[in-house]
Amino acid sequence: MAQALIEALNLQVHYGGIAAVKGISFVVEQNEIVCLIGANGAGKTSTLKALARMIPSSGEIHYGSERIEALPGHLLIGKGMALVPEGRGIFARLTVAENLAMGAYHRSDKAAIAGDLERVYGLLPRLKERAAQVAGTLSGGEQQMLAIGRALMGRPKLLLLDEPSMGLAPLMVEKVFEVVRTVAAEGMTILLVEQNARLALEVCSRGYVMESGLITLADTSAALLADSRVRAAYLGE
Amino acid sequence: MDTLLQQLINGLTTGSVYAVVALGYTMVYGVIQLINFAHGEVVMIGAMVAFSIITSLAGSGMPPLVIVLAGVMAAIPACMAIGYLLERAAYRPLRHAPRLAPLITAIGMSIILQHLALLAWGRNPLAFPQIIDNRVFGIGGAAISSVQIAIILLSLTMMAGLSWFVYRTRFGIAIRATAENVHVASLMGVNADRVIAATFVIGAGLGAVAGVMYGSYYGIAHYTMGFSLGLKAFSAAVLGGIGNIAGAMLGGLLLGLVEALGTGYVGEMTDLCHWPLASGILAEQCADGGNFVLFGSNYQDVFAFLMLILVLVFRPSGLLGERVSERA
Q1: Using 50, 70 and 90 to split pLDDT, how confident is the model at B1?
Q2: A119 domain residue, yes or no
Q3: Are strands A189-194 and A33-38 parallel, antiparallel or unpaired?
């Protein structure tokens, strides 16, 4: 069996007195594409935010060979974990190029950064055309591309993607997922959170289904796509 | 004497000081949405420290320029240290408190700093030693002094330097990114605490120089000088769009100009003897070139705050404070 890159054990997230994530355990192995699907409010985004240490949580988070639950969030990118946040979180007043530069903020290897920038521009040519433009003027799809490109500039080992399809036109969703597939094919480990279950399961090898703060199903994508409960609840059949 | 040109020169001088002080307000606000009301006092302490150094070295026989430079060089680290301490001790513990708490703390810190300065430097206005020969040059019927030239040039240099830092360097981009979204900036590896501390320290360093400039321009330093200067610079920051660095610069210069022009012309414009209707009634006062001035140049401070009120009414986001949609 491959090595686990990230593993959560009994992960819990509370907002005030409300439990958003009620003790879940899951694992993402090296070079795996895993998705976390579920309805709005199931706790998917909270889970990702907890992994990236953007919000406090209890339970254990193992990343590589270390425990990271006590680390401040800004140190994780240096350890190779990048989160593309829900709603993209681009810096709207910064230019596209500055946004991408921020992705490599923690790095100091200038030559390699320049190389990665070319690679990102190659993968997302639209960003190159708009490099000098203020990011707030990009379309939603372009902003999502920028958010992914920015995360790639950090040369992550683990990419956490939060709802990359949110608010995008179907054609744009297709393009964004094409990029996700390309990145995955290059060997990136990805944990993908999506409401669009069909889309997610088609990209991933395994999936977890979350319902009101708990993982209710865990299986291979093929099995989940065939599961009658998943079909009824998330695939609209 | 040409009033217009003269007031433009005067306005540019005070305006550039306002602009430099306003940068301190706007940078901190941009990153943590706090109005650091103690910033004016930091500027005052810059003037005070420089005053002490310059006075004690004045008789030493060192070249005047070196003495002034020594004063500035002492004021900058002193103010930076105070700026850092303010953030560390007063504001950081309240980072997640309701916004009113740090605001009230800021006012409290302002009072504390004022009274510490009162203890250290006394209650009397201190005459800033005029050790540099202040030469006056005539241009187009107006006068500009070497101190004014120095203030304008130094301010423009500092503003250009800050712009370069904020728009061109890696850490500067990180400051702007943090200002926009601290959570996402932290995902990029930005240590928000460091960025926030840096905005306080940079603002305080600029403020130190501004304090020395202000003190040497008016020839006086006083423990209360930070209050009105700070309030005007804050108005300038709001005028330009608080949180916007270019806005603070524009707002400062504009405020200085409006204030100078207002002061220059208000007496003449509100002299009722120039008003045909009133001059008839006031024939006695107006005889032999007499005048009846409603508002004299002592109304100087009114203009800055009048402008602040107008901006808040008609364009609350400030001149350059446009809103870019951040989340779809």
Answers
A1: low
A2: no
A3: parallel
